[in-house]
Specification:
heterotrimer, A alpha/beta, B mainly alpha, C mainly alpha, A: alpha/beta, D-Maltodextrin-Binding Protein, domain 2, 2 domains, 10-stranded mixed sheet, 10 strands, C: mainly alpha, two-stranded antiparallel ribbon, 1% strand, globular
Chain lengths: 307, 135, 505
């Protein structure tokens, strides 16, 4: 540690990695994204032999953390956590960002949007819910927001059903589910990991998920696609670096990160937390992110958040 | 013009600026007030309060007793500190700022130097080693 | 049953648990007592370690840190009038005047006792009634939270000090500062002037550090020197006399209950709990005129109110599995990492785990109490250091802490700006209490107002047809009208007690 910092001050660039690597996370410590980043850092630490430290830069839907990564020196010592917000925030034009500002390393997981209702809700299946909304039922929805993927997913659902929900944005999925349990909302849109504890505990029922296939955590829950509604909204997480890092470093780090995903304790955590681990290597992750980005660019325009 | 009256005038101007700015905010929808409602109400309240303060300003500052010349200088010193924050290495900058501050507030050179060096070193060690701050 | 004495006793017999609690407490003392550094930042430093150790060891460190951080925040609040954490803002109001009167030892001792009392009572509540209370907390929706925030804001009357008009003005300034940033309902950027740093609003910690720490240094520079009291009168007498203690019990109990309840509500934290506890105590006190000038009752209400929130927030965290704040999020993360899922099932399936958590918090509070009582002797001596060194420490730590929050120079600018303007306003008799209160409660009031209106489709009736919301709105109205009804609430002045007794207010 001492040697690492001394080297950092003098900057004699030995063979990479010669000093500590930092990982910038957009979320608060203790949350899901933070834990994924920390498990990966631990794996990287074991493989690289230098300290790998997580830093939390919370704020403005991730724009703060993304800017920090974008403007960092591309020397191979700074990694950023790349959540789904990376595909949304640049289009909102709060700050000057684009997915092209980053070199992508690897994707870790996907977590589809889940439509959850209280256990006592009259809606027992997705079909019953959809029919009721089409028939003009008054449904109060809540989700993290505004402009989270869960919010956009709710808007898209409403649009496909030809109705507008009564909608209230909450400061996170946690507060939204609290309001759901308290009976202040009829349904909540949130990520599967964010509601899985309550589903397993029996307080909340999952009606459907907006993934492209059934969730391995809840294989019985239907997808919206199986009901004829073409809705794909999911959170995902991966890792990135500022653009311009030497290709050799990128390739080496990509391998190390993919290997770090395989740690036994990490996989156990993901199972408990309800994360669907679906790793993607760098090139595929780039294609995936660009698709997502194009889709969200169109959505935020269509819903009138930007002109 | 007394201090509280000056404050009242500044607050009044601020309130007007807020009212003008919120004019351009988007309206609400579906019965939910838009982002401009609360700032607008607060602007009106602030305008009313600044008027009331002009009329009844109350008492103002006590006579400054000690180091009163050093206060504006210390403020300028803090501003300079932040301007140079990531330009000059933290330990060195803090040492210099502390030294200047001690001299401003009337410490002798000896006490000021010892204090500045000791404090800057211990702060640097505490922040970087103990608390994981990276400058 | 988590209340089984055998289950509770087990961790207390393990030397290992004591060791990890001690590490956590030591870290908490560091992060809590340095203004600008928060318990959350301590948690961030600690989280990497939670990967390496067993779940109960990780929890011992996390809980030790949480418990001692809030207590330690009160120490600089009392000695330097600079709160170490947001929860200790209310402790400056009576704690610092006590220190100025040469009773620093007593104030620090009361802070330690109050912390222990508050935590102990909150643990009793957690063991006895966690599940029913968490169900009650769920009944608080957007409309209820709006009403609670309004009730909290109505206490501005109490913390305005001499000039109600000036108190209201700083309150409105605080509410306006809270408006800056991305709108919580529509995502529209308000008053950000294209600055990315402002998108997330003005950060609270730098503002607090500036208004209290930096402005306090300037104020002291402008004031006559502190009376040089000899060390004995400052640190001896950590315990109140029998006569003084008689009224304190009731205030400690009321403060604890307020703190527990605010802690249980997922959207309000220990900072709000302490302020509300202080204000309620003033209302019920036989000597409200002493509040803000070194009232023991006010101090004990504020410390119990802040610390009882720990047990309160554990109620919701454990019983619902929903994190109420960042500390709770880390705790849930640590449990999840080891395959444990907080929630109602935890109480049924793993009562031992709940008992362990309760025991660990109790152990941490015991360690903190011992440290607080021993430390009061040592810490009181801080006041004998030359002013210049104390001021320099406060300035350097305040700015360093603001920077460390997000490694951002923008936050340091916020602290310096808040410090300079705070000092200028204080010099003109504008109290700072209403400003921080508004900054804490403003976002809660506004976002829940509009959220509730979204759910009621624009109908204002939702606030009066829901009984809990109506109750708190009526309480708020009564608080605002109180000075008109009762003459005795009029003469307490706050919180510019730092400007020495003169004709400033």
């Amino acid at each position: 540690m001492l040697a690492g910092t001394a080297a950092g001050c003098a900057r004699p660039e030995g063979p990479w990695p010669s000093r500590e690597v930092r990982v910038i996370v957009h979320a608060a410590p203790g949350g899901m994204s933070d834990t994924v980043a920390r498990f990966t850092s631990r794996g990287l630490n074991e493989r690289l032999g230098v300290p790998v430290l997580c830093e939390n830069r919370v704020g403005a839907m991730g724009a703060v953390a993304f800017s920090a990564v974008k403007f960092a020196a591309p020397d191979g010592y700074l990694v950023g956590y790349a959540p789904v917000e990376l595909a949304v925030v640049p289009h909102l034009r709060y700050v000057d960002l684009s997915t092209g500002d980053f070199d992508l390393l690897a994707r870790h997981h996907r977590a589809p949007a889940a439509l959850a209702v209280p256990a006592s809700s009259p809606y027992r299946t997705l079909r019953a819910f959809v029919d009721a909304v089409r028939g003009g039922a008054r449904v109060a929805m809540g989700a993290a927001g505004p402009l989270s993927v869960w919010h956009l997913g709710t808007l898209a659902l409403g649009r496909q059903l030809g109705r507008t929900f009564i909608f209230a944005p909450f400061p996170g999925s946690g507060p939204a589910t609290t309001a759901l349990l308290g009976g202040h909302l009829d349904a909540v849109m949130a990520g599967v990991p964010e509601v899985q504890a309550l589903v397993r505990g029996g307080a909340v029922r999952l009606l459907g998920i907006m993934g492209d296939g059934p969730s391995p955590i809840f294989p019985d829950v239907p997808t919206f696609r199986s009901e004829g509604l073409d809705l794909l909204f999911e959170a995902w997480g991966g890792f990135m670096m500022p653009r311009g890092v030497a290709p050799a470093i990128l390739a080496e780090l990509e391998q190390h990160i993919l290997a770090a995903f395989q740690q036994e304790a990490f996989r156990t955590y993901c199972r408990t937390a309800g994360l669907d681990v679906q790793p993607l290597a760098s090139a595929d992750f780039r294609v995936f992110v660009d698709q997502e980005s194009a889709r969200y660019a169109q959505l935020v325009r269509e819903f009138g958040f930007v002109s | 013009m007394t201090g509280p009256r000056i404050v009242a005038c500044v607050l009044g101007a601020l309130a007007l600026a807020i009212l003008i700015t919120t004019w351009g905010f988007p309206p609400g929808s579906q019965g939910v007030p838009g982002p401009g409602l609360v700032p607008r109400l607060l602007g009106v309240a602030l305008l009313a309060l600044s008027g009331a303060l002009l009329w009844a300003p109350g008492t103002s500052a006590p006579a400054l007793v000690r180091h009163h010349r050093a206060i504006p200088a210390a403020m300028a010193l803090l501003v300079a500190y932040v301007l140079l924050w990531r330009v000059v290495p933290y330990g060195v900058l803090t040492g210099l700022v502390l030294l200047t501050f001690f001299r401003l507030t009337g410490l002798a050179w000896r006490g000021a130097l010892i204090g500045a060096v000791l404090m800057a070193t211990s702060l640097q060690v505490l922040f970087e080693r103990g608390l994981g701050v990276r400058f | 049953m988590p209340g089984d004495p055998m289950l509770l006793l087990a961790p207390m017999l393990s030397p290992d648990a004591w060791l990890y609690v001690l590490i956590g407490v030591a870290l908490g003392v560091l992060f809590g007592s340095l203004p600008g550094f928060t318990a959350t930042m301590g948690l961030a430093v600690l989280t990497p370690f939670t990967f390496w150790v067993a779940p109960d060891q990780a929890m011992a460190m996390l809980l030790g840190l949480l418990v001692s951080a809030i207590f330690s925040g009160g120490v600089p609040a009392i000695l330097l009038n600079t709160p170490g954490t947001p929860a200790s803002i209310a402790m400056t109001w009576d704690g610092h005047p006590l220190a100025r009167q040469g009773r620093a030892g007593l104030a620090l001792g009361l802070n330690a006792i109050g912390a222990f009392l508050g935590i102990f009572l909150s643990l009793v509540v957690l063991l006895l009634a966690a599940l029913p209370l968490s169900r009650l907390a769920l009944r608080f929706g957007p409309a209820e939270y709006f009403a609670v925030a309004v009730f909290g804001l109505s206490t501005i009357v109490g913390v305005s000090g001499g000039s109600m008009l000036k108190g209201l003005a700083t309150g409105v300034i605080g509410l306006l500062l809270a408006v800056i940033g991305l709108d919580a309902i529509t995502g529209y950027p308000r008053f950000t002037f294209g600055q990315p740093e402002l998108l997330d609003g003005v950060s609270f910690i730098p503002v607090m550090v500036g208004l209290f720490g930096i402005a306090e240094v300037f104020t002291q520079m402008a004031s006559p020197p502190r009376q040089q009291l000899d060390g004995d009168t400052q640190t001896s007498g950590m315990l109140p006399t029998r006569e003084e203690a008689r009224t304190l019990w009731a205030h400690g109990l009321r403060g604890s209950l307020m703190g527990i309840w605010i802690g249980i509500m997922p959207a309000a934290g220990a900072d709000v709990g302490a302020i509300l506890a202080w204000d309620q105590s003033r209302r019920f006190s036989k000597t409200p005129e002493k509040f803000g000038k070194g009232s023991l009752e006010g101090l004990i209400a504020a410390t119990t109110g802040a610390n009882a929130g720990i047990g309160g927030s554990l109620v919701t965290t454990l019983a619902l599995g929903i994190p109420g704040d960042s500390a709770a999020a880390v705790l849930i993360g640590a449990l999840l990492m080891h395959g444990l899922q907080p929630g109602p099932l935890l109480f049924r399936n793993r009562p031992d785990l709940v008992a362990t958590i309760v025991a660990l918090v109790f152990m941490a509070s015991l360690v903190t109490l011992v440290w607080g009582l021993i430390g009061a002797r040592i810490l009181g001596k801080i006041l004998k250091i030359r002013d210049q060194y104390l001021w320099a420490t406060v300035l350097a730590v305040a700015l360093g802490g603001s920077y460390a929050l997000n490694q951002s120079t923008g936050d340091v600018w916020t602290a310096v700006t808040a410090g300079i303007f705070g000092f200028l306003l204080r010099q003109q008799g504008f109290p700072m209490g209403p400003l921080v209160l508004a900054l804490i409660l403003g976002p809660m009031a506004e976002s829940n107002l509009r959220r509730a209106l979204a759910l009621s489709e624009g109908s204002l009736a939702t606030f009066v047809t829901r009984p809990i919301s109506l109750l708190f709105l009526v309480l708020a109205a009564l608080t605002l009208l109180w000075p008109l009804i009762s003459r005795r609430g009029n003469d307490s002045r706050l919180p510019d007690s730092t400007i020495p007794d003169s004709d400033t207010l």
